[in-house]
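Q: what sequence does this backbone want?
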């Protein structure tokens, strides 16, 4: 841990399991459009690059605007149903917070929704920021999004570790000049994350946290 003083955490699949609510919202959206509901695996493979990209994959780009309106209205009413912290998340955040690290959520999930979820799960007090989609014109892996987060946190890429679950996280770290450790609790497996160039890969946050804090 001595090598890191700032920690950026992806949200879905890294800190939280929100796939039941996300799958339910995509199913509702496609059914409203007269399309067959997606499987959970189809949803898992579609998410990560932002809601617009996921909707375009599942409903088709021609119906993006219509689908977004349906999805957002439904999701805003139901997003706190079935959302839970993944094992080890709270303990890791509490440990890092007590050790004086800067902690932030850095996600392609809708920013206001992300903050509401962090409040709901009782982790907002442990965080120095929650940065998500629509907070800026950018998403991961765009360098400008990382620069925005650093400016708000008052830090730089040196000493920063991004903890995530997808190639978007890995590429965001590469673009920004900092490290990325990944967990396989989200949308991508070990082989996919290794191919993307993750610096370290763990089965979950319990293993990642044990490795991180034992080296302090």
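A:
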């Amino acid at each position: 841990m001595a090598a890191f003083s700032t920690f950026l955490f992806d949200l879905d699949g890294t800190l939280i399991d929100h796939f039941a609510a996300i799958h339910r919202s995509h199913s509702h959206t496609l059914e409203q459009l007269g399309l067959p509901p997606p499987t959970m695996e189809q949803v898992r493979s579609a998410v990560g690059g932002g809601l617009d990209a996921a909707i375009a994959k599942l409903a088709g780009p021609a119906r993006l605007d219509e689908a977004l309106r349906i999805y957002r209205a439904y999701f805003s009413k139901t997003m706190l149903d079935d959302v839970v912290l993944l094992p080890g998340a709270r303990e890791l955040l509490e440990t890092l917070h007590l050790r004086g690290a800067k902690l932030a959520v850095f996600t392609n999930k809708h920013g206001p929704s992300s903050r509401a979820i962090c409040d709901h799960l009782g982790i907002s007090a442990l965080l120095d920021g929650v940065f998500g989609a629509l907070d800026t014109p950018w998403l991961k892996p765009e360098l400008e999004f990382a620069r925005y987060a650093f400016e708000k946190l008052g830090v730089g890429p040196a000493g920063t570790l991004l903890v995530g679950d997808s190639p978007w996280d890995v590429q965001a770290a590469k673009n920004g000049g900092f490290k990325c450790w990944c967990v396989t609790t989200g949308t991508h497996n070990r082989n996919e994350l290794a191919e993307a160039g993750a610096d370290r890969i763990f089965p979950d946050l319990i293993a990642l946290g044990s490795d991180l804090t034992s080296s302090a």
